[in-house]
Design a protein that fits this description.
The protein has ten helices and 26 strands. By secondary structure, it is α/β, with parallel strands linked by helices. Strands 1, 2, 3, 4, 5, 6 and 18 form a seven-stranded mixed β-sheet that branches. Helix 1 links the parallel strand 1 and strand 2. It starts with a strand and ends with a strand. The relative contact order is 0.13. The chain binds flavin-adenine dinucleotide. Flavin-adenine dinucleotide binds next to helix 1, strand 2, helix 2, helix 8 and strand 21.
């Protein structure tokens, strides 16, 4: 027997949840189902390092309670994986054999952590709550921790390890956060993190591993690290197999147009699984951040409702805290822009680097030390605003140095 719904969403996280909220806000009568193979209400993946480090309880991760779905009149189908979708028949099949019909479908299936072919319980990725539960146990006993790959998983996790633990970061690149910050910001950050006790091994990789009482990791440059835990932070792989098997257009992600619609008019995609357009570069991209997932989830839902709504493109938006230092990277933050305006206070550690295009419009911002104004920069970038001026950068504080660079 097939159960039928007006709207079905696969994925109960940032994109899926925002879609549910938007659908219900605009249509009180539609039948809606949300499916996820994880058997719990939506939670924040972003906060899992805080949970693992013992700074918040498991409940602190929850974004909504089970009652949320009931109150919204949405059918939750949790603990069930979707194994096939058939866009032509407007139907999908669950792992237990049940079939669900839909008028419009949203793929908000996110991504999986990229892993390494290593068979040891001491090597972990972090993406799902089950990964977090495993890490909670390992974190309590470790004296040394190593992360490979510098990003949103490795650095926050390392910074939540106990103060006594020895911490190592192995990165292939010649600088950390190379995809989201410019070289100068990387240098400032590396300096601050090193002072906080992080050992950074750049342009390096693990070439050999032996498991004894600890993991013995041999690095490309010859050094050996003995560690209790290896965190694998090598990025993510978008969940596109359902879409690909259904004949939808895919590249790195499920390809979407400016309405977040896939190559089938009744199937939409949003979030880490979807490949849309970058607002600044116009290139096809998967941003892999929470804000983009929320924006695309909302946009997809509006279009699924028949409310024509064009998504203007996604922005990089990484705001995090590592080793007690606030770090934000918003928009396009690389050296090849027309101008970079920079303010850096060596005493407070507060740094602002604002990236402008040839029309003096803000295209990106790297912030270190304080990130409260990250939203403001997001706003300036997404409205293609001209930079309001130096005062925004420096506020009322007396900064040691204000530099102006003109890249010709
Ligand atoms: C440790 C960590 C820290 C992060 N920190 C930040 C940060 O500081 N800032 C930031 O912006 N972003 C951060 N991110 C990234 C952010 O969490 C993601 O961008 C966001 O979760 C994407 O949301 P999504 O809804 O697209 O997909 P996901 O959150 O990946 O959710 C997809 C859901 O789909 C379900 N699913 C997949 N396939 C199926 C199937 N076949 N059947 C049923 N269910 C399925 C999955 O179980 C999952 O629950 C972090 C991520 C991690 C892991």
């Amino acid at each position: 027997m097939t159960e039928n719904y007006d709207f079905v969403i696969i994925g109960n996280s940032a994109a899926g949840l925002q879609a549910v909220r938007t659908l219900r806000k605009h249509d009180q009568l539609a039948t809606i189902a949300i499916i996820d193979r994880e058997d719990c209400p939506a939670y924040s993946r972003v906060l899992t390092p805080y949970y693992i480090g013992g700074h918040i309880l498991r409940e602190g991760l929850d974004i909504v309670a089970f009652s949320f779905y009931q109150e919204l009149g949405v059918c939750p189908v949790f603990g069930q994986a979707v194994i096939t979708i058939d866009p032509e028949k407007h139907a999908l099949e669950l792992a237990d054999g049940h079939k669900i019909g839909f008028k419009k479908l949203l793929l908000a299936t996110g991504a999986e952590a990229r892993t390494l072919p290593i068979a040891t319980r001491r090597a972990c990725v972090l993406r799902h709550i089950a990964d977090a539960e495993k890490l909670v146990n390992l974190f309590q006993r470790m004296k040394s921790v190593t992360a490979v790959g510098a990003g949103l998983v490795s650095l926050p996790l390392l910074s939540h390890a106990s103060d006594q633990a020895e911490k190592h970061l192995v990165v292939g690149s010649n600088r950390i956060f190379s995809r989201v910050v410019d070289p100068e910001t990387s240098t400032i950050l590396e300096d601050q993190l090193t002072k906080k006790g992080l050992n950074i091994h750049k342009q390096n990789d693990i070439v050999e591993m032996v498991e004894k009482e600890q993991l013995q990791l041999k690095l490309k440059h010859g050094k050996q690290l003995n560690t209790d835990l290896l965190i694998i932070g090598k990025g993510v792989v978008p969940n596109i197999h359902l879409a690909a098997a259904a004949g939808l257009d895919v590249a790195d992600g499920v390809l979407i147009d400016e309405n977040c619609c896939t190559s089938h008019p009744d199937v939409y995609a949003a979030g880490d699984a979807a490949e849309g357009t970058d607002f600044i570069t116009g290139e096809a991209t998967i941003q892999g951040n929470w804000m983009t997932a929320v924006e695309q989830g909302e946009n997809a839902a509006l279009n699924m409702l028949g409310i024509e709504c064009r998504y203007q493109g996604s922005l990089k938006n990484n705001i995090t805290e590592i080793f007690g230092i606030g770090v934000a990277a918003v928009g396009y933050c690389q050296e090849d822009v027309a101008e970079i305006i920079s303010s850096w206070n060596a005493v407070t550690g507060r740094c602002r680097r604002v990236f402008l295009d040839e029309k003096q419009r803000v295209v990106g911002a790297n912030l270190i030390g304080e990130t409260n104004d990250a939203g403001l920069y997001y706003q300036l970038i997404s409205t293609r605003s001209v930079f309001p001026g130096k005062t925004m950068l420096t506020g009322t504080a007396n900064y040691a140095q204000v530099q102006f660079h003109l890249n010709s």
